[in-house]
């Protein structure tokens, strides 16, 4: 998990952790001579540091911008390790993260959260493990730049709000010149502590994504907690019984 893996064009992936108990999704790096773009920050400053080392080892420009695909902890808690990077996120997620930044984050506080909601125990256990020895100086960082619908960055990277049941601020990042769409967790069911018995993958959103970003133009669709999918594999989810 230390090295970047080239996906396509100028998109590189720092792979997700295949152990779901660790709750660590992939972090994408979009190379740009004017300063690369990170997509998500990882679940801790330790992951962010590994990403930084991997970027240097790969010989890519250091990041200038960081995009949050949504506000969930495992996508944003590494951001404080990038103090000089401009952070971009959807307005709804920014509101939530400003409130989260004011909480007294510590191992003791996370244990209090778990004690108040048994369904949060897996997430809280993962947070404590990810942050081992890293609480001093830790802070949740809200976006510096907020957007509502679509934002196009210099270099042609498109940031688009798609919403969905997993998080109201779910955002996808489109790299047209590389044929890649970075999906975050957008089509996943809600987090466990909010999930209802009938909740599943958001198939309607997958249909919409394939219509908006057709396989004729995009070869790779990368969600956070699985291997990147070629178009045929994403389409196969819709055909599954």
UniProtKB/TrEMBL annotation:
One Pfam family per UniProt: Lactamase_B
Name this polypeptide is given: Metallo-beta-lactamase domain-containing protein
Superkingdom as given in the UniProt entry: Bacteria
SUPFAM superfamilies with a match to the protein in the record: Metallo-hydrolase/oxidoreductase
Species in which this protein is naturally found: Actinoplanes auranticolor
InterPro entries, per database record: Metallo-B-lactamas (IPR001279), NDM-1-like (IPR050855), RibonucZ/Hydroxyglut_hydro (IPR036866)
Domain Metallo-beta-lactamase: 25-225
Signal sequence annotation: none
Top-level taxonomy: Bacteria, Bacillati, Actinomycetota, Actinomycetes, Micromonosporales
PANTHER family, alphabetized: ACYL-COENZYME A THIOESTERASE MBLAC2, METALLO-BETA-LACTAMASE DOMAIN-CONTAINING
């Amino acid at each position: 998990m230390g090295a970047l893996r080239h996906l396509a064009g100028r998109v590189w992936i720092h792979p997700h952790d295949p152990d779901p108990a660790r709750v660590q999704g992939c972090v994408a790096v979009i190379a740009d001579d004017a300063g690369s773009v990170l997509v998500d920050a990882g679940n801790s400053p330790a992951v962010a540091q590994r990403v930084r080392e991997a970027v240097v080892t790969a010989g890519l420009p250091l990041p200038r911008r960081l995009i949050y695909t949504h506000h969930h902890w495992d996508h944003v808690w590494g951001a404080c390790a990038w103090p000089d990077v401009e952070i971009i996120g959807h307005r709804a997620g920014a509101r939530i993260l400003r409130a989260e930044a004011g909480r007294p984050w510590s191992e003791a506080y996370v244990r209090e959260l778990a004690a108040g909601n048994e369904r949060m125990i897996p997430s809280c256990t993962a947070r404590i493990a990810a942050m081992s020895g890293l609480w001093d100086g830790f802070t949740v960082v809200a976006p510096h730049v907020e957007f509502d619908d679509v934002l196009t960055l210099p270099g042609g990277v498109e940031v688009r709000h798609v919403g969905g049941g997993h998080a109201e601020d779910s955002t996808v990042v489109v790299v047209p010149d590389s044929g890649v769409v970075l999906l975050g967790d957008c089509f996943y069911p809600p987090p466990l502590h909010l999930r209802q018995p009938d909740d599943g993958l958001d198939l309607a959103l997958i249909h919409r994504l394939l219509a908006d970003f057709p396989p004729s133009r995009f070869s790779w669709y990368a969600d956070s907690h699985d291997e990147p999918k070629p178009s045929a594999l994403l389409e196969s989810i819709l055909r599954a019984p």
